[in-house]
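User: Hi! I'm working on a homework problem where we have to compare a predicted structure to a textbook description. Could you give me the structure for the chain below?
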Amino acid sequence: MMTSVDTDLIRVLADPLRLRIVALLAHETLCTTHLVEETGAKQTNLSNHMKILREAGVVDTEPCGRFTYYKLRPEVLAGLSERFGALAASARTAAENKRACP
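Assistant: Happy to help. Predicted structure tokens:
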């Protein structure tokens, strides 16, 4: 069963730019400058999206001099994946569980 935390996380990841950021961070730890270059987003817009991802627990920050690096928290995505996996397993048997109409 999906919880409100799961649905909040799904909403966070539903934004195309945030999903692109997550995909980029799945391959390497990047700083804000790298993310601006890779996504083409304006720095202020990107910072707002990074704040949302941080608050949702999807990314962690790592200060490095005057730069902030971002890295993905894979356990958060793995937890969401497990929930979807459970839904898929349930759906496989759903056709056999047909409720009769009154």
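For your comparison, note the following. The chain is about 60% helix and 15% strand. The chain has a mean pLDDT of 90. Good luck with the assignment!
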